[in-house]
Design a protein that fits this description.
Elements (H helix, E strand, L loop, with lengths): L4 E10 L3 E4 H4 L7 H8 L3 E4 L6 H16 L8 E5 L10 H8 L5 E5 L5 H14 L5 E9 L9 H4 L4 E11 L4 E8 L7 E2 L2 E2 L2 E5 L2 E4 L2 E2 L3 E2 L1 H23 L8 E4 L4 H11 L10 H4 L6 H11 L8 E8 L3 E8 L3
Parallel strand pairs: 4-5, 4-6, 15-16
Antiparallel strand pairs: 1-7, 2-3, 6-7, 8-17, 9-14, 10-13, 11-12, 16-17
């Protein structure tokens, strides 16, 4: 079977209408706008209402991506949803498929937390390169506000809700130039959203676990150290696989976790600030949505242009991290 290349031909994004700025947060926990912006670069975050869902914002982002790519939902072969917060624990990709009317597409969820979009990009590329599928919709969507402890100052200042999407299509020229993805489960306790089991006796001598998920738990210092060390390393490896130097990169597009992390990674790679894409101030950490959300804004603002070389990297719970180098457009 002939191997094919891929092109990323469309992007879209959607966020809830409700926002919470740092002044509002200071009414919930002991903090201030200056304290939050100095440490994170975040000014506000979008929060989903009870009427909004991963499915609804993921669908809205997808429609915009399909429109930009100039293809119909019925032409999709595969829908990948990168999320850690599905509306249904069994998965929400198929719900997005139904909303779009993408009747030909197989749909499934992929969970790699804040690395989800990069892992999804690499996964989608394998289906296209082997000739199995021609048109793939990759969605990154998370509603982390459902799982944040709004009395925990260490975490509630960081997270927001949102969705982003990208269309990947078979192409004569392969625009995914290189990638590297990694996991280290020994560091899982640094950032997780754990299930808390409670024993329940069904009948005498037969006990099962009947608990629930808790709230996001994070060791901020360890995650920061992990990110500023591992992300430049994985980007270097992806650049090596792409046979590119850092000077040939047009844009650095990192998971929007914290402005200090973005600045530290760019400095270690000797990438100037004007090449760093950042919208963390407006949305906070939207997990798997953060990269496609920032990508879509940069494309629609006219910063990213067809043919530009983009280095993207996701990092987060698992712990997982990865990088991909791609050219935008056909």
């Amino acid at each position: 079977m002939q191997n094919l290349g891929i092109a990323i031909t469309g992007s879209g994004s959607a966020v809830p209408g409700t926002f919470l700025d740092n002044q509002g947060l200071s009414e919930l926990v002991e903090t201030s706008d200056e304290w939050i912006t100095t440490r994170t670069g975040i000014s506000q975050r979008r929060l989903a209402t009870a009427a909004e869902s991963v499915t609804s914002i993921g669908t809205a982002a997808s429609l915009k991506a399909l429109e930009m790519a100039q293809i119909e939902a019925k032409d999709l072969d595969l829908i990948l949803l990168a999320t850690s917060t599905p509306d249904d624990l069994f998965g929400s990709a198929a719900a997005i498929q139904a909303e779009l009317g993408a009747s030909r597409a197989v749909a499934f969820d992929l969970t790699a937390a804040c690395s989800g979009f990069v892992f999804g990009l690499v996964t989608a590329a394998q289906y296209i390169r082997t000739g199995v599928f021609q048109n793939v919709l990759l969605v990154g969507a998370d509603i982390l506000s459902r799982w944040v402890d709004w009395e925990d100052r260490r975490t509630c200042i960081l997270f927001g809700d949102g969705a982003g999407a990208a269309v990947l299509q078979a192409n004569n020229c392969d625009h995914l130039l290189g990638f590297e993805i990694k996991s280290d489960g020994t560091l899982n306790s640094c950032l997780n959203l754990a299930y808390t089991p409670q024993s329940k006796e069904l009948v005498e001598g037969v006990n099962i676990s009947k608990g629930n998920f808790g709230n996001v738990s994070m060791n901020g210092k360890e995650v920061y150290r992990f990110a500023v060390k591992r992300v430049p390393e994985v980007i270097d490896k992806a650049l090596f696989r792409a046979n590119l130097t850092v000077e040939q990169v047009d844009w650095l597009l990192l998971h929007q976790a914290n402005q200090r992390i973005l600045d530290a990674v760019a400095e270690r790679l000797s990438i100037p600030p004007e090449k760093v894409i950042s919208n963390v101030a407006n949305y906070g950490n939207t997990s798997a949505a953060s990269i496609p959300l920032a990508l879509d804004e940069a494309v629609r603002f006219g910063k990213i242009k067809p043919g530009d070389t983009i280095v993207t990297s996701g990092f987060g719970a698992g712990l997982t991290w990865g990088a991909a180098i791609f050219k935008w457009g056909r």
